[in-house]
Amino acid sequence: MSTERAAKLIQGTTGGWEVVVGLEVHCQVLSNAKLFSGAATAFGADPNSQVSFVDAAMPGMLPVINKFCVEQAVRTGLGLKAQINLRSVFDRKNYFYADLPAGYQISQYKNPIVGEGEVLIDLPGGEVARVGIERLHLEQDAGKSIHDQHPDHSFVDLNRAGIALMEIVTKPDMRSAEEASLFLRKLRAIVRYLGTCDGNMEEGSMRADVNVSVRKPGTPFNTRCEIKNMNSMRFIVQAIEYESRRQIDVLESGGTIAQQTLLFDTKTGETRPMRSKEEAHDYRYFPDPDLLPLEFEQSWVDEIAASLPELPDAKKDRFMAMGLNAYDALVLVAEKETAEYFEAMLAAGVDAKSAANWLNNEYFGRLNKAGLSVTEGPVSAAANAEIIKMVGENIISGKIAKDVLDIVWAEGGDPRAIVETRGLKQVTDTGAIEKAVDAVIAANPDKVEAAKLKPAMAGWFVGQVMKATGGKANPGTVNALIKARLGLPD
Amino acid sequence: MSDLTELTLAEARDAIASKKVSSRELTQGFLKAMEEARVLNAYITETPEIALAMADASDKRIAAGEARPMEGLPVGIKDLYCTKGVKTTAASKIIADYVPQYESTVSQNLWDNGAVMLGKLSCDEFAMGSSNETSAFGPVISPWRAKGSTAQLVPGGSSGGSSCAVAARLALGATASDTGGSIRTPAAVTGTTGIKPTYGRCSRYGIVAFASSLDQAGPISSTVRDCAIMLKAMASVDPKDSTSVDIPVPDYEAGLEGGVKGLRIGIPKEYRLEGTAPEITAIWEKGVEWLKAQGAEIVDISLPHTKYALPTYYIIAPAECSSNLARYDGVRYGHRAADPKDLIDLYERSRGEGFGAEVRRRILIGTYVLSAGYYDAYYLRAQKVRALIARDFTEAYKKCDVILTPATPAPAFAIGEKVADPITMYLYDVFTVTVNLAGLPSLVVPAGVNDAGLPLGLQLIGKAFDEATLFRAGRALEIAAEFKAKPEKWWRG
């Protein structure tokens, strides 16, 4: 469990290159109110309808820390197994921009609320890699500048201004675009489990700045470039792949990498440097004199720690202890909702293995095909649990179970009632089954002879009986009867 | 009663309480005086309609027996305090037409205590100045003139509108604010009384910020008692200001006459500065004698880092102001340059046109001291020195209860005299800035006049949140000084 996993090198003309990736992820804190004002934070509201005097930086307005946002940051820090700093400081990051009303962003510079921690990522092939967390700090978001509404005016929407963000900075511990993507998925899962960020990249509640460099394996880090403001997992992968290839080409043709800030062009799939004006900032950080240092007690941290939900890693271990294999367990814990769905089935009395198999083999496939998430799917955990239970109780066969699922999917309803009213119940009346068995044997004397020579032929008889009974006969009973009739050993 | 405006705030309160005078009569008296005194330029905005409406409401409450501690008492508000629906300019062109939709906590506290608003008082632009000459609305002229002279003098700054209004009887009292001496310097040079309370005593919410870690609201009024009444009404902890402090506000007036017997008065040797006017040194010595005569114990103390206070102040205050004033960018409110060609042009011209020279100078200084490569040498170092200055006081207060010093190095100077030389202007704050750096309370009381008949003030510095002792000592000085001088009302023609 280390970063010294098998290197995935990119081949250049001079041999293999290792990609080094570090991320700065901005997670919007799940909170009804902004970091330093009481204004609301809902996404999609009318422009400038969620702006307080503080957010608009009216004269004489002062920030007041929202304790809930602090709690969310602490909770996230604990989820990242990180050092929680009982004393941290808010600083002003000064720069002018139209959507930054105060002319400074309140952030944490030298003394963040959360220090070092770690996130484990599961690599394909079963290896687990550790990505170090450098820090997490709280800061305000800026507003939004809108440039495409008018030929020579820009508009500013301050709804977002002042919303609390957690900036999570990793160590340069990722070694491929895939690992960066796995890390982001894992981080997203963690904050969603914690309820500290909704992880919605499309709405911008999770965005990342991606630091990329390349090096020959075993050599020191090279100069990195930072790709700003990425909000799609797919584009992050593309950007890292493009940028690492670009850097390799530069280095192999004898050039050097200049440390710079880049933007990823989603149309061309290329990175390009930001205009120098966009990055030539001296932020003149200094402690915000309107705010006291942020201080709290360890006992408060302990309280939050005690209320932490089970996180993906622990859940995965627990699921595996119930008999699931690593793959199934990973699939089930990857999304909080999936795990919750699975656990609801367990709570309904289904054993873990059956539930996992059923979900992975049947239900998730149908969801994927329909493009639905587990919360959007039409079949409840309770209904799925009932279907599996009926198989276990020999009320229906596995085959009928799939049919029942299709019916519930299409029409809804209670699975047990469906089985009852549509006559899907397995036939356990041995008399009826015997009749069917005898009929099949009588109709196929040649096959009876063949079966005596080749006992595997019994399966054919079973199939015929099942067919004749519309799949409702208990396959075990059918099998036993046929063997008895044909004089085959059990 | 002959001239109601000659009453002190406490006298007016008592006259109203005993129904000798109504708030309306009192208010009308001040509104008339304000009209006659417009040449002094104390008010940027007069609010007669609001004043009379508030006065009438007060008279109703008084009639109903529901009077509050400042019921019906007309006061002026420094134009740094945001007042809901009333233009608030910070004496700057950049927000010359700004009308806040909210009320500062301190002014709200005054209204909740029954006070009546006469209008908004001028000050130095964004409170940056010591003479009230940097206001975009022109300098405020002191009601005082040197004997035999018609030369216009400064009323001190930055709260020059406040000191002028109180000295010229254009308000019973006035709110002011003090970042490096902006309450105390004006009080000292106009024969008025002013207190800068402990940092955190009054909320800063709704007061246009200059330097957040130094700014503190306080009153200027005629007497120590008046200030005690006003501060009690203004002070409060405020959930909207994280730096306000939740320590009960005592009834300052009740403890006023306690005397100074046994009180240890510290005299800091570092405040004997070369260049201090002889009459200032003389009044300081007199002050020592007065307190001694009333039973105080005089103690020599040392505040060794005093000499670093001004340079420290002129790093920290501009640094904070450079950031605090970034919001005045022409984007959301305030002055916006015509036809900007792009965002940078919009910023440069809006701010260049909107801010006056002194404000621009301080923004530049502040931006410089916070810049990469200079931060450690200037800002960080200044913060360390600031801690040493605060420690000086902690050490001194092991030996004394209150410190007595001069308030200004010289009496009022003429308008225009120091404008061209900012350093000389900054030196005028030499006795006051240390107090802001240490966050302590400090009271200035009038102590006498010089040969030219111009008022001289003395400064008392107290322990944190011990304004009560400060008022008590100030009252003792007031009793001994018997300051009776008043400016002649030459502006009445």
From TrEMBL, chain A:
SUPFAM superfamilies: GatB/YqeY motif (SSF89095), Glutamine synthetase/guanido kinase (SSF55931). The keyword Protein biosynthesis applies. PROSITE patterns: GATB (PS01234). It catalyses: L-aspartyl-tRNA(Asn) + L-glutamine + ATP + H2O = L-asparaginyl-tRNA(Asn) + L-glutamate + ADP + phosphate + 2 H(+); L-glutamyl-tRNA(Gln) + L-glutamine + ATP + H2O = L-glutaminyl-tRNA(Gln) + L-glutamate + ADP + phosphate + H(+). HAMAP family: GatB. This is Aspartyl/glutamyl-tRNA(Asn/Gln) amidotransferase subunit B. The lineage of its organism: Bacteria, Pseudomonadati, Pseudomonadota, Alphaproteobacteria, Micropepsales. It comes from the Bacteria. It holds the Pfam family GatB_N. Allows the formation of correctly charged Asn-tRNA(Asn) or Gln-tRNA(Gln) through the transamidation of misacylated Asp-tRNA(Asn) or Glu-tRNA(Gln) in organisms which lack either or both of asparaginyl-tRNA or glutaminyl-tRNA synthetases. The reaction takes place in the presence of glutamine and ATP through an activated phospho-Asp-tRNA(Asn) or phospho-Glu-tRNA(Gln). Keywords: ATP-binding, Ligase, Nucleotide-binding, Protein biosynthesis.
UniProtKB/TrEMBL annotation, chain B:
InterPro entries: Amidase (IPR000120), Amidase_CS (IPR020556), Amidase_dom (IPR023631), AS_sf (IPR036928), GatA (IPR004412). Residues 25-470 form the Amidase domain. The active site is at 78 (charge relay system), 158 (charge relay system), 182 (acyl-ester intermediate). Gene3D superfamilies: Amidase signature (AS) domain (3.90.1300.10). It comes from the Bacteria. Heterotrimer of A, B and C subunits. Belongs to the amidase family. GatA subfamily. This is Glutamyl-tRNA(Gln) amidotransferase subunit A. It comes from Rhizomicrobium electricum. The gene is gatA.
